[in-house]
Amino acid sequence: MELLDTLREAVRDGRAPDAATRAALAQVTDPAVLRRAGKTLAGLGSEVSGLRPFRVAVLCTGTIGPYEPILRATLVAAGLLPSIEPGRYKMFEMSLGSAEFGDPDLVSCLLDESYFLPSQWSATDIEGLGEYVAQRLVSLRSTLDAATDRSPATILLHTLPLPGTIRDAVISWRDRARLSRIWHQLNGELLALVDQNPQVAVLDLVSVLGDKAVAARDDRLHRYGDLPFSDGALALIADQTRRFAQAKSGLSRKVLALDLDNTLWGGVIGEVGAQGVQLGGLYPGNCYRQLQETVATLRDQGVVLVLASKNDADLVDRTLAEHPEAELRPEAFSARMVNWQPKAANLATAADTLGLAVGSFVFMDDSPFERGQVASELPEVAILSAEGDPAHHVRTLVEHGWFDVLELTDTDRKRPELYRTKALRADFSSSFGSPADYLRALDIELTPAEATEFTVARIAQLAGRTNQFNLTGIRYDEATTAAQSVSPDHLVASFSVRDRFGDEGVVGAVWVDCGPDVWAVTNLVLSCRVLGRDVEIALAAWIAARAQAAGASIVEGRFVPSGRNGVAADFWTRAGFHRTDNDEIFRLGVGDTVPAPDWVSISERSEVHS
Fold first, then answer.
1. The CATH number of 434-602 is which of 3.40.630.30, 1.10.1130.10, 1.20.1080.10, 3.10.20.310?
2. Over the stretch 39-55, which tens digit does the pLDDT of each residue have?
3. Distance from C-alpha of 578 to C-alpha of 599, rounded to nearest angstrom
């Protein structure tokens, strides 16, 4: 097929598949095609540019079968360059407990019922079986604790389907219900592991299998080759693993750009008027209402909304404000691009207004022409079709996991409003004669704070999701950040910003190796929404002051080009640091000063570790 030919050509040329090819690969659900694609992509070199390296160890209670090529294909589709290392056969528990997998980005665990059930059990003693399952769960918890003590890797588990061959072998309806209850409780306890160990994540395979109506197992292949899952089930596990890896690697999207006519409501408002659009009530209006409700739910969790519609702006604003079934009011959108300009140009303008890359956008539209034009001019934008039956729109929007995050923070919840006020600042700036006068009028306040158990999650999220102002590209995860935050040889700090328009929340973070003479900044990240105010220079001044107070004579910073962080290339020199013989390293001596801007005040907050 054409897609496979395109992948072969990319591998032959030693380059990453382009954005359009990866988007096409992301739409593939046939496990046979994914297997072939994954085998082809195994030929990609480790130095290929355009994909983010990602190491995965795979541990299985049986044979992993075609999981490796299927997983590789799904990860490449997400923009990752995977290195996949299968564990040893029949050594699941030993490999996990000893952490022999080393230090990968992710450990993908494939379990089947054999881990929790004895090889022989009695259908007349369901209570005894439940006790055995509970003991095995305790053993798994202990093994996971041992693994996470030895490695900072994140371990991804899944809930377990109960095979019908086991369930239906219990002929008593009461006992069968008791067995199912035991299994549901087991899955509930597996899901609860995420609250007990921050390095453990769990995907709900049982729910996904039920939603997709895919058989969990091929009985013949299970008996013949000890394959615990069917190819279809492995494809679903790989897709869920991709969603997790995408979030962990900072490749999730932040912005949802939406058309209006035949997307957020039925009909063309310019033709039928506000009263004539289909929204709420019976089908199909209820479909559009449900889509708006789902979009509002995403916004409540931090997804930034952009309106991109070819329409009369006043009519659109009146309809959004006054229609009784409209869930999304005008203020729900951080930017409204309602005009007759090409939508690709409008999305680019919205990205500039919000200070975000177009690669952080997802665009949903019913028009093949508009989708095609955006895909052609802005290939980094993820495209969703709102064409066809509106009953499917919600599934189209959410099933890929474009906006997944590992953990939701307060800053996430505030993000849409923060970006809306960014546009208000732009309007405010037009009344001043000089940029400096405008910046002084903003009353900008920077608040540094050493990391605590309450802020570690947000700091790690910034490392994972910040791409443009990310000085070295090191994406410290939550476990590593937590360990450094309590180490006397390290400093981990977050930075909050507020001004006359409101509180931006935690927008930056720094990780520092604190030696007796040299403080080395191993990474520094800052949200793009606060760039342009010299907050980063004030941040550098704070780091330098802390280092000098600790007796260090040199502060050392690094900049490693990533292809996406060019906006930060001159940061260290602007902050007064001197370039060394190593192009990546910059130094500030004890007698040097950072030209801190007078329009940013620093208000340090003292945090208490517990």
1. 3.40.630.30
2. 999 999 888 988 999 99
3. 24
